């Protein structure tokens, strides 16, 4: 294994990964314990030793040359080459200050570019380039929230210029970076609430489109919206969001496809692929995470599919409730497994009976229906 990995991680970084039993670090480095003369992989389930007794190694061979023997519990010497390659490439991309080409990665790892691309995409569900863009976006969000200027944040995150922040292929914020940094300051968000046969729903939109569809009580749904946009100007305004709300409620009530509603929620290229696949699942039916991954041509990307489902903020429009684990059970759901169960049961029952359900009722907020709609006034 290349010596490049220890240069990317400090001992403190490695120790934090060991404390967290992080499986993604397996193949990235190994640690040994001087009091037992044993070395392990980072995810080893054994009791954690005192930090003073721990050393880190670039490979099993390096640990054995230092006089340590393999742990019988986690078999650190049996991590296959694929896991080691993926871990190494992830570490390089995580540490990169700018995009790395396949040739760059091949030169630093010793793997051929074509083989590296194929294996990485199979195991992670993303190409190395897509993975880098996601990690850069995460760093950009983190930098923005520290209070730095937008310019300082974008360079610190690895953007080469301001232009790349606003490029359609990489823009994941759904609003300007400064607005996101300020918790939605200056952003006008209108919302409305409705009671449905399966619980209360909140629908919110900016002038650009839907930004949130949340299940929950009025208090919890509004709290979730505030958490995402703490400084935005929120107003309960039924006329403003009525076209979105009525389309979604008609879908919930009758199973009719929602209209091609515009949205103001961006996702990574892979997330968008998953969300589009979810919208192809017929009303009243379910799929497994594995089936979605296979439909995307990436059968090993099951966990990546699950993460994309968890990142969805548009309930009903993107029906992530229709995706279940292959082994049974409901799996996770952003708004709770009980809500997921109710939605699936509601849709299956409606399909069996071929009949309607009680019409949902819309909470009339302070805005009256006589006011001009946001779509007419262009707020």
Automatic annotation (TrEMBL):
<feature type="compositionally biased region" description="Polar residues">
    <location>
        <begin position="370"/>
        <end position="379"/>
    </location>
</feature>
<dbReference type="InterPro" id="IPR004026">
    <property type="entry name" value="Ada_DNA_repair_Zn-bd"/>
</dbReference>
<dbReference type="InterPro" id="IPR036631">
    <property type="entry name" value="MGMT_N_sf"/>
</dbReference>
<dbReference type="InterPro" id="IPR035451">
    <property type="entry name" value="Ada-like_dom_sf"/>
</dbReference>
<protein>
    <submittedName>
        <fullName>Bifunctional transcriptional activator/DNA repair enzyme AdaA</fullName>
    </submittedName>
</protein>
<dbReference type="Pfam" id="PF02805">
    <property type="entry name" value="Ada_Zn_binding"/>
</dbReference>
<dbReference type="InterPro" id="IPR036217">
    <property type="entry name" value="MethylDNA_cys_MeTrfase_DNAb"/>
</dbReference>
<keyword id="KW-0227">DNA damage</keyword>
<dbReference type="Pfam" id="PF01035">
    <property type="entry name" value="DNA_binding_1"/>
</dbReference>
<feature type="domain" description="HTH araC/xylS-type">
    <location>
        <begin position="83"/>
        <end position="183"/>
    </location>
</feature>
<dbReference type="Pfam" id="PF12833">
    <property type="entry name" value="HTH_18"/>
</dbReference>
<dbReference type="InterPro" id="IPR014048">
    <property type="entry name" value="MethylDNA_cys_MeTrfase_DNA-bd"/>
</dbReference>
<keyword id="KW-0808">Transferase</keyword>
<keyword id="KW-0234">DNA repair</keyword>
<keyword id="KW-0489">Methyltransferase</keyword>
<keyword id="KW-0805">Transcription regulation</keyword>
<dbReference type="InterPro" id="IPR008332">
    <property type="entry name" value="MethylG_MeTrfase_N"/>
</dbReference>
<dbReference type="InterPro" id="IPR001497">
    <property type="entry name" value="MethylDNA_cys_MeTrfase_AS"/>
</dbReference>
<dbReference type="Pfam" id="PF02870">
    <property type="entry name" value="Methyltransf_1N"/>
</dbReference>
<dbReference type="InterPro" id="IPR009057">
    <property type="entry name" value="Homeodomain-like_sf"/>
</dbReference>
<keyword id="KW-0804">Transcription</keyword>
<feature type="region of interest" description="Disordered">
    <location>
        <begin position="351"/>
        <end position="379"/>
    </location>
</feature>
<dbReference type="InterPro" id="IPR018060">
    <property type="entry name" value="HTH_AraC"/>
</dbReference>
<dbReference type="InterPro" id="IPR036388">
    <property type="entry name" value="WH-like_DNA-bd_sf"/>
</dbReference>
<keyword id="KW-0010">Activator</keyword>
